[in-house]
Amino acid sequence: MLSRLFQCRRLRSSQRVGRRVLSLLVLMGLPLAAQAEGFDNLSSLADKGFVIGAQAQLLGSGESLGALDPTRRLSPASVTKLYTAAASLDRWGPQHRFTTQLMATGDVDAQGVLHGDLVLDGGGDPALTSENLWRLVQRLRERGVRAVDGQLVVSQWRFGPVTCVTTDRCKARTRSDNAYSASLSSAAVNYGSWCNRVKPGAAVGDAASISDCATVAPLIRLDNQVKTVAHGGDTRLNAERISSERGDTLRVSGQIARDSFSREIYRGSSDPAEQTAKTLMALLEQAGVEVKGYATSTTPPPTTAKRLAAVDGKPLQELLLRMLNYSNNFMADTLALDLVAKPRAELKDAGDALMRFAQELPGHGVPTLASGSGLTPENRVSARDLNALLAAMYQHSALFPTFVAGLQLPTNGPMHFIRRGSDTFQQSVMLKTGTLNEPVTVRAVAGYFRTQTGRWGSFAVLVNGTSQTPYLAWRQVLPLVAADLTNMIEAH
What we know:
alpha+beta, five-stranded mixed sheet, 23 strands
């Protein structure tokens, strides 16, 4: 017991000396690039050519526990979402809900006919779903509307279609094999992605059955090349959304076992507002409300338009939990665009709003933020900047519980790749990760930790590759971060 006590005293004495040395280097104006106080394991990546910025601190006192080029600005990838979450909470508070409404440009007569257009006013809800649209339709029926002699107009006047500025989103204009690069619109539904359900056919050799997840009847052209195979066979599905002058087509190939449950496929749509229009038209038809056709618009509803129905989305605190836990790019960029006051917002406007918020934080420098999701590789912040953000949110008692709730605890986080490191790291750290593979490798992580004596701390680690460095997997990075943070946590 006494031996352990003396070891702890020697360790703390060594740490104090290290901090004095670091302070002297700062006063003398010497570079800190070679100093890895507290990040001895992480610094080994520098020998392989990776560029690193890192800092860990105790909150309250501001005591530094570790630093490695903390002022170097690097790409944070999806760690950017911490700025989006913080700015959103600061603007609206945890209980804010985004409203989507149906407006009428004319009157409804005694027979339930709307003489004019039915306008969906997209409110920028980042989690608007088909269920929300179904509720709108039911509330429209409660108002007695049975037919519309004009057309359905989906208005994305707040933002959309948003100009693509990343390779993935620009490619998704014509084809997409994923959902993360979905296009953006203030009137988007289902995260800007088509959802289709694949079920096995009636007999082996039959084509599979493909239906829309919300309306059953397909809303997108289908190129179904999926065959039903025998009981116990493997299920393998490949899907790509392809766009042309005829609109979106979903091409699905592969096979599905006869005894399999249905599988859901999500692929980003080329035009989220049109996707919303098609979905709403199908729901109106199913409810017996006749509408002649649809159009999309980038102008607000007329000032004379009357509200017929409205639906509120989920509270912001629930949106942030999903956005941060699953690193949802569509939700993050939509929330950042919502921060822009002027209509027809673009990602640059959203980035400017986030930068203004960041620069008002105590101790924060001038960042470069071109999006709220981190998909834009131009984003640049430093480890010190991130710690300033984390410290500011920690000190905001009304917002901190919601903010920290969105971070992952490694031991039970939904992202399996973070379940690494010691038990101390697994159970004492709350974090958000960021990953990019092009144009260079980015592995970033930031968040909070609790020391063994119960004190709160924050940390940020940014690892960027270059054109000469090899691919870097999380299994090569996270154990190093975990080892360094474990030492800090157990020493305090």
